[in-house]
Design goal:
Blueprint: H1 2-27, E1 31-32, E2 35-42, H2 51-59, H3 61-64, E3 68-73, H4 77-85, E4 91-95, H5 97-103, E5 109-114, E6 121-126, E7 143-146, H6 152-163, E8 172-175, H7 180-187, E9 193-196, H8 200-207, E10 210-216, H9 219-226, E11 233-238, H10 239-244, H11 246-264, H12 268-274, H13 284-294, H14 306-319, H15 339-348
Length: 349
């Protein structure tokens, strides 16, 4: 009887601890002078695909919407989602597909602003291997760079090769990171090809260090590569946070929608001029080019297209080992919402 009683106490204690941990970030969003203090982790602050995060701060739109936001950089979307789940940050600017992947693990994340309908990613081939690698089918047996295992570049690599009948047994995935670590991996025979974004793409192509194999910076390129749209860059949060703090989500959505609209009304040169100068450390002209090459990926309104969400599920349902076994029970309507963006668009008219 004593053993049963003690076991019951332990079970109750664990349940209480889980409850407190699960609610930590939704109950304790700090306030200062009545303004919410939000921390957003970004899957690579210097990447053009995530440019709206820093641009919103630089344009003062967070402040204009009565909210204080701190941005933290993290090269891997998989690590960013972990920080969100543990309550270390309140939101992530990263790829929408993480919301689907996490639902397969019984975690609820939802995209509240969808910045792009396409990935903005490029599969590059090292100069030394460009003669032998002319199509995705030529990636068989090669070392392929991804940001990290479980990242969106990992999902997309599996999708591209899977369409050609390959599995991860047919090539070697290598954690290549992004930026200089990716460049070093490609230039020192660590990877034969790999998936990355601007400004790394512009830098390596301009220098002759790499060639483009697959370009998913445009709708046409994405449809050709993946058979449809693949909504990527988004602001996603824990479902519990969205439900508990709709006013804060509303402020964030308004700020980002204003930025997406601003992007459509300005040139790459004007956009580059608003960004921190260190983002152009490889040269101002190169940075402007990288923005020009990728800026068309942003949708201008922040709305999710249902077609795109469905295609993400179709792809992950085939190639993600987390999603594939449970794809029939994935509820897409829980992975994104358009209501906050729709409110912002009505207000900004």
């Amino acid at each position: 009887m004593r053993y049963i009683k003690n076991s019951a106490i332990i079970v109750l204690a664990i349940a209480a601890l889980l409850t407190v941990t699960g609610c930590r970030e939704s109950r304790t969003i700090p306030m200062s002078d009545g303004r919410p203090q939000i921390t957003i982790m970004v899957g690579g602050l210097e990447k053009v695909i995530y440019l709206p995060a820093m641009l919103t701060k630089q344009l003062g739109f967070f402040e204009k919407n009565d909210i204080d936001v701190s941005l933290l950089g993290e090269q891997s979307g998989a690590n960013a989602e972990t920080a969100l789940l543990t309550g270390d940050v309140q939101a992530v600017v990263g790829f929408y597909d993480h919301t689907v992947d996490l639902q397969a693990k019984d975690q609820c994340l939802t995209s509240v602003v969808q910045f792009a309908d396409v990935p903005g990613e490029v599969e590059l081939v090292a100069k030394a291997d460009a003669g032998a690698i002319k199509s995705v089918r030529d990636l068989r047996g090669r070392n392929l760079g991804v940001t990290s295992f479980g990242s969106s570049t990992d999902f997309l690599t599996q999708a591209l090769t899977g369409i050609e009948g390959m599995t991860t047994k047919d090539y070697t995935r290598v954690r290549a990171g992004a930026g200089q670590t990716f460049i070093a991996g490609m230039n020192h025979n660590g990877i034969d090809a790999g998936m990355t974004t601007d400004p790394t793409v512009a830098q390596m192509v301009n220098s002759g260090e790499a060639e483009i194999l697959v370009d998913m910076r445009t709708e046409a390129g994405t449809r050709a590569a993946l058979g449809g749209l693949y909504p990527a860059t988004s602001l996603y949060m824990r479902c519990q946070t969205v439900e508990s703090h709709p006013d804060i989500v509303r402020k964030l959505a308004a700020a980002f929608v204003q930025t997406l609209q601003w992007i459509k009304q300005h040139t790459p040169e004007e956009i580059a001029a608003k960004m921190p100068p260190q983002y152009a450390n490889a040269g101002k002209d190169l940075y402007v080019q990288s923005i020009r090459d990728s800026i068309g990926m942003f949708n201008g309104d922040g709305l999710m297209k249902a077609e795109g969400a469905q295609n993400v599920l179709n792809i992950l349902g085939k190639y993600s080992r987390n999603v594939a076994p449970v794809r029939d029970r994935i509820e897409l309507d829980k992975t994104y919402t358009t209501k906050f963006v729709e409110e912002a668009l009505r207000t900004n008219q």
